[in-house]
Design goal:
The structure is a homotetramer.
Chain A (H helix, E strand, L loop, with lengths): L1 E5 L6 H16 L3 E4 L4 H12 L4 E5 L13 E4 L7 H7 L2 E5 L3 H12 L4 E4 L2 E5 L2 E2 L4 E2 L3 H14 L1
Parallel strand pairs in A: 1-2, 1-5, 2-3, 3-4, 5-6, 6-9
Antiparallel strand pairs in A: 7-8
Chain lengths: ~160, ~160, ~160, ~160
């Protein structure tokens, strides 16, 4: 089982704590954590996963392994720029979005396009024609997010 | 000047007409039309552009040139799957979203991530924390969409 | 019909003249010329194609359209680095290698891997275990190269 | 340290044994083994690495994790087709080619293009204009290959 954690490369302390806890719980449940390998939410989640002895995979936009945060075990420096977002999505069975800017939105959209479930904490809200599109599964905290992610990905 | 037209691979007659007119106006203004090369909105826009003697570029997800709609002049069969969305965005100076499903949303997000303007007709509405994120420039019709696209991309 | 011209981004006057003539003949025969969009052999071939009113497509490694040589009509700034070599190969029906360094060798190999014919003028010679691997069709001049390329791609 | 092992997806028993031993020695020396994740030489090397408790990373052409051989720990199902060869090269500090067909040749070429060392056992021989191009470091057996790979990548 691979769980993707997606979110911005910079974040405040509150999102950092949430992402850390998400990462910790992913590792505790025995899943591999995959992310974009950079700072912010990605670093927090990797740090949390490492604190619980987990395995973390970082798929970088650049060609330079040094751009990975220090809590990534296995680094793939793609050199593809933001096109690497598709690879984060392809590698994951399910994604958890923690906050997130436009890069995260692109990953959410790519996942939904191919039918992979996305769980969100404090992330984007989507609508068309004034009507909400409820494609992202909302979780109120890290525990609910990881449990939902495990549950929906086992089903799919 | 390269204008991207993004939208779903299948669409109803109303969106088809809008996309056709967007394509026609792009060609009339002398810009190259770039898109994902498939059917629906992409085909309509290419057909419109060809009707005005324009040049159309289709960047396909598959490796097979035959998957392009018949109004594409130059086909790049990338074989990258949805990762090719990043290439549509990189090739365009500005994007016009006509309707759109999740694939389109990923292109909108990738464009906004790198600061490329996106004009939308009947497309996604974004929000975070209950507050709208007004990053997409709204146009009410094809004429306004193309004029806005030309104006903002000349500025940037 | 799309004919790829591959070769180094810098070249001497002799290779420039050969590539120019290859490009000119491709355009004269009505094929679209696809290349990596940069200087050297790529620029020479595009210049030749333009001299005969042809259409040229440049698939760049960088995200910056300005890196294309001035004889490219349609530019796809992929941002994929050398991974774009696979796209040059996928877009072409057949490839003509003029001279070439390691980047060209990677394109030759990718083409042969998927069974696309490669015609070579003064390019790499391959061997394994001391025995030549004659997978590249040798041409002695631009005219023979373009004629062979047209002939073999029609067959395949 | 990441050492790439490249070679064909099918191979005879002799190459299998060589690749197995290369993988085993890589793991024994504490490096991560990266490869294309499929069968043949890739599977042999992963199996060898696992026998010594190593960590293996497989970067697949397809989007389907199930295509990985059973000895891959961390799978990145890129969906990029042969364009993923560039990612194997970018992830590795140094590459060891064991035998190899055209796909392997493309990886050798991409590595040499960016100045990454390539060690070869029974692999391609390159020439231009009738003169050998000795860019691949030749090793006579797995032990020499891994030792050379470690030595040259530490220097670079």
């Amino acid at each position: 089982m691979y769980i993707g954690v997606i979110g911005a490369g910079r974040c405040d302390a509150k999102l950092f704590d949430i992402a850390y806890e998400v990462g910790r719980l992913i590792a505790q449940r025995g899943a591999i954590l995959v992310c974009g390998g950079l700072g912010g939410v990605m670093e927090a989640a990797c740090k949390g996963a490492k604190s619980a002895g987990g395995l973390t995979l970082g798929i970088l936009p650049s060609e330079d392994r040094k751009h990975a945060n220090p809590y990534v075990n296995v680094v793939v420096p793609t050199g593809l720029g933001e096109a690497r977002n598709a690879l984060v999505v392809r590698t994951a069975d399910v994604l958890i979005a923690v906050g997130g800017e436009f890069g995260t939105l692109s990953e959410i959209a790519l996942a939904l396009k191919v039918g992979k479930p996305v769980v969100g904490i404090g992330t984007w809200e989507l609508a068309k024609g004034g009507r909400p599109v409820e494609a992202i599964l909302i979780a109120k905290d890290p525990h609910e997010a990881v449990e939902r992610a495990l549950r929906v990905s086992l089903k799919s």
